[in-house]
Amino acid sequence: MRVKDRATTLPCEMGDATAVYPGTFDPITNGHLDILARAASVFPRVVLAVAGNAGKQPMFSLDQRVALCRQAVAETGLDGIEVRPFDGLLVRFARSCGAGAIVRGLRATSDFEYEFQLALTNRMLEPEVESVFFMTSKQYVFLSSSSAKEIARHGGDVRRFVPDCVAEAMIEFTG
Ligand code: ADP
Predict the structure, then answer these.
(1) φ/ψ of residue 27, rounded to 5
(2) CA 175 – CA 156 distance, rounded (Å)
């Protein structure tokens, strides 16, 4: 198929589509919210999909992560965002939401290789779903859930890095 034809048959027409923004969100940070706001400026409906499988030792359970995401999203005042838990194949979940796009965030070049691999795998599994990437703001380039957890575990102030509701939950968790 020529590129021109491909362009006219893209499944995901921006501005008229649902996107899924998946992640572990253990916990949701200001960097995630930055990507969410950018996605919401392009897609009228964004499903923030919280993965059930969060690796070996998540700080927060799936229910807690979903609840914190809902609170954090409500605090942003963004329209058209739903927070839902998911398990299993991401592309299948995206399809079940009627989504034509998967949103991911890029920080430094170090994210690229992993995200490229993930996007190509998802494309093989479901060619109808496009992966779309947004660049984070400068101040969140080095921010990750893991670094926020590390700061909280050592008694540091995480308020600059995560929404207030998350900061409170982290302080409670770490005592
Ligand atoms: P996962 O375990 O699927 O990587 P995360 O919750 O760590 O889940 O991240 C979800 C998505 O958000 C990923 O695309 C990740 O690159 C992106 N992301 C995480 N932190 C930031 C940040 N500070 N700025 C921009 N994007 C980010």
Answers:
(1) -100, 180
(2) 12
Collapsing DSSP to helix, strand or coil, 170 comes out as helix
Residues in the chain: 175
Residues with CB under 6 A from ligand 1: 23-25, 29, 31-32, 34-35, 104-105, 107, 111, 136, 140, 143-145
Residues 11-63 have pLDDT tens digits of 545 445 999 999 999 999 999 999 999 999 999 999 999 999 877 789 999 99
Atom of ligand 1 nearest to the CA of 55: 2
CA atoms within 13 A on the CB side of 84: 15
pTM of the complete model: 0.91
The dihedral sign for the CA sequence 165, 166, 170, 171: negative
DSSP 8-state secondary structure symbol assigned to residue 12: -
Enter the tokens of residue 13.
């027409």
User: To test ligand 1's pocket by mutation, which of 62, 144, 147, 161 has the most ligand atoms within 8 angstroms of CB?
Assistant: 144
- Residue 137 CA: nearest ligand 1 atom is 24
